[in-house]
Amino acid sequence: MEEKEIKALISLLDDEDKNISAHVEDKLRSLGTSAIPFLEQEWESNLNPEVQRRIENIIHDLQGDQLRERLLDWYHGGERDLLTGMWIIATIQYPDLELEKVKQDLEQIYYETWLEFRNDMTALERIKVINSVLFSKLRFGANTRNFHSPGNSMINIVMESKKGNPITLCVIYMLVARKLKLPVFGVNLPNLFMLLYRDESQDLYINAFNRGLIFTRQDLENYIHEIHLTPQASFFEPCGEEEIIRRALRNIVMAFEKIGEHARAEEVKQLLFLISEGGDLGV
User: Fold this and answer.
1) What is the predicted pLDDT for the residue at 232?
2) Domain 82-279 belongs to what architecture?
């Protein structure tokens, strides 16, 4: 459909005949996200609150359809690139966010870290360098003041504000480490998401929410005992990228519920359902 035809269609949204306006809404939805720029233009120029409300609903639905399509493509695509998954999650709140922008921001963090690296470093020295750059030089840290903000799960916001929750801080840490060719993985503990540096000689666990505090396997076993959890093999092993994305989505559900945005929470639950095994939301 040509631009002038789309604009003519949008102009019919204020038709007094409800059948016509309903048909127009359905037609606009069928056009997909290509209609959004024209809908936004009409929203700015139209002074009718009812028409503006209809436009807002259509845009919201179109953006939601795009988000679900992206998430399903990511989940079934095979590669499951973690940064792409986190970008998709961020578009829940920031639908116009470009993946390239997120990549550029991560590249800058990686570059700052790469400058401090040497090939002859031990595993412990490498971890300490990343810790120094992320938590001292760049001042990343835990958002304890506003822990339940949805923004803590949005990678673009965390890279901008330098404050986040355990999983988003771990993701940034892990993505930087992987760009440095380091064997760093996520560990999906029930009460705290952590990282694992695993090579042929050792396992070192990293708590990015506590400025990169380093644990041995025994330290982690002691922590699990202290918080009265029954040890499971999965507590010590790397988790998949899809598990990380599911956990991030669960965090967002809880964040929206905490601030009373129950409709938004339900929308995110549906996203979680799309990529949950056996339909288990796990919220």
Assistant:
1) 93
2) Roll (3.10)
Q: At 142, which helix (H) or strand (E)? A: strand 141-142
pTM to 2 decimals? 0.89
Helix (H, G, I), strand (E, B), or coil: what is residue 74? Answer: helix
**Tokens 């989940």, located at residue:** 75
Angle formed at CA 120 by CA 114 and CA 124, multiple of 5 degrees: 75
Domain ranges of the chain: 3-76, 82-279
- Give the span between the Cα atoms of 2 and 65, in whole angstroms: 22
**DSSP type of residue 137:** I
Q: CA-CA distance, 174 to 8, in Å (whole number)?
A: 49
pLDDT, tens only, 183-207: 999 999 988 999 999 999 999 999 9
The CATH architecture to which 3-76 belongs is Alpha Horseshoe (1.25)
